[in-house]
Amino acid sequence: MPAPRAHKIRLNPTPEQEQYLRQACGVARFCFNWGLSEWKRQYEAGEKSSSYRLKKQFNATKREQFPWSYDVTKCAADTGFRNLDAAFKNFFRRCKSGEAKKGYPNFKSKKQSRQSFRMDGSRIKIDGRRLKLERLDTPINMTETLRFDGTIKSVTISEDAGHWYAAINVAVETPEHECQQKSVGVDLGIKTLAVLSNGAQFENQKLLRLELRKVKRLSRELSRRQQGSGRWQRTKRELAKLHRRVADRRLDYQHKMTTEITQTYQVVGIEDLNVSGMLRNHRLALSIADVGFGEIRRQLEYKCAWFGSKLMVVDRFFPSSRLCSYCGTINGELTLSDRTWICDCGAVHDRDLNAARNIETEALRTLAGVGSRTGKTRVERVSDS
Ligand SMILES: [Zn+2]
How many other CB atoms are found less than 10 A from the CB of residue 120? Predict the structure, then answer.
C-alpha cells in the first residue's frame, strides 16, 4: 500500500528562475483576490458562488483579460482558487458551529501572506538535484536529492526568510520486506552513537565536532562585528550555512543508521532516554544535542512501522548498564566513567555492549509476556502481521 511522505528541500534558483517563482506566487495570490472580490460581487447580486464556478469563469476569460497568467504553470491559478475554496469552507464551518470568530476570508497582501504555490506531480520532473517546472526553461538546482522513491503527487514551492523551498509529496510503495534477523538491542551513547547487542557499532561522527569548532569561531567573530554592518551580515550568512551543513550531515547519518537497523531486525529494543533531563546537565548538553537522540527515536518509530518491525521501548529505570547480561547480578558500584567492568560471576563487560544485550533481553521478555523487570516496557508500534 502506498504511504504518503514529504521531503522539504531548499532551492538555489537563479535570478531568472526566482522571477518565475515570484510570478507564480503572484498569480496564485491574484486569483485568490480576484475570486474573493467576484464572490462578494455575485453574493451582493443575489447569486450563489463557488470557487469551482469562479475558476471556470477565470479560465474562460483569461486569454483576453489575464494573458500574463500563461507565463507560468496553470497550477499557480489553481492554487489561488483552491486556497479560496479552503478559506470559505473554513468560514462556513465556523458559522455552522457557532464560533465567535467566523474568519471571513481576507484579501491577501504581497507583504503579509506567505508566498507559495502548488504544482501537480505530473507537471514537474525531478532528476537528481534538478527540479524542472512546467513553463520554466531551465531546471532549478536543489540543495539535496529527494529522499524517497515513488510517485510524486505534488510540490509546494514557498519562500521563507529569503530562501525558496520545495516540499515534495511522494506516494511511497511500502516495501515487501523480510527481516533476516530476529532481534537487537540498541544502546545509544555519546562516544559511540550506537552499540548493538551483536557487537556492531555506529561511530559518532567526529567530523561534526570539527565543524562545531568552526561554529564557535564564527559565533565569536559575529559577536565582535558591528551589528548590521556588511561584515556582520557576511559572517551571519556563513554561520547559517555552516549550521545547515552540520544539521544535514547529522540527519543523513542518522537516516542511514535507522534504516539499516529497522530493515535488518524484526524486534528493536531501545531505552526510553530522558532527553530533556539529560539536556539540563550542561556538560552533556552539547554532545546530546549533537547526537540527536530524539530524532533517532522518531526515525526508528516510523521506520519500524514501514518495515513491519516492532520497536520496544525499555523503561528508563531499567538498569541496562548495571545489570550483568550473563548472571543478572546488579553492579551497584558502577559509575559513568567505567567503560569496562568485571562481574562477580567472572564476566568481563564492555559497558555499552552489555547494556545493548540487556536491552535486547528485556525487549524480548516483555514481548513474550514474561513480564519486564520494571513492568513498564512497552511496544511502541506493532505491525499488522
Ligand atoms: Zn555476572
Answer: 15
Same domain, 25 and 144: yes
Global pTM? 0.54
Q: Where does residue 28 rank: exposed (0-12), middle (13-18), buried (19+ CB within 10 A)?
A: buried
Contact indicator for 31, 77 with CB cutoff of 8 Å: yes
- What is the pLDDT at residue 385? 33
From 162, 175, 324, select the one nearest 236 (Cα to Cα): 162
Domain count of the fold of the chain: 2
Residue 216 makes CB contacts below 8 A (sequence gap 6+) with: none
Report the interhelical angle of 74-96 vs 15-44 (nearest 10°).
40
The closest alpha carbon to 356, from 202, 203, 199, belongs to: 199
My answer on whether 190 and 144 are in the same domain is no
Cα(343) to centroid(ligand 1), Å: 5
Tell me the CA–centroid distance for residue 152 and ligand 1, in Å: 54
CA–centroid distance, residue 328 to ligand 1 (Å): 6
CB atoms within 10 A of CB 160: 12
At 330-367, the pLDDT tens digits run: 888 888 788 899 888 888 899 999 999 999 999 988 88
Rounded to the nearest whole angstrom, what is the distance from the C-alpha of residue 330 to the centroid of ligand 1?
Answer: 8
Asked if the structure places residue 252 within a domain, the reply is no
pLDDT tens-place string over residues 252-298: 888 889 999 999 999 999 988 766 555 566 555 555 555 678 888 89
Lowest-confidence region among 71-85, 111-125, 239-253, 326-340: 239-253
Average pLDDT for the chain = 85
Residue 120 in grid coordinates: 501537480
The residues that are catalytic are 187, 271, 352
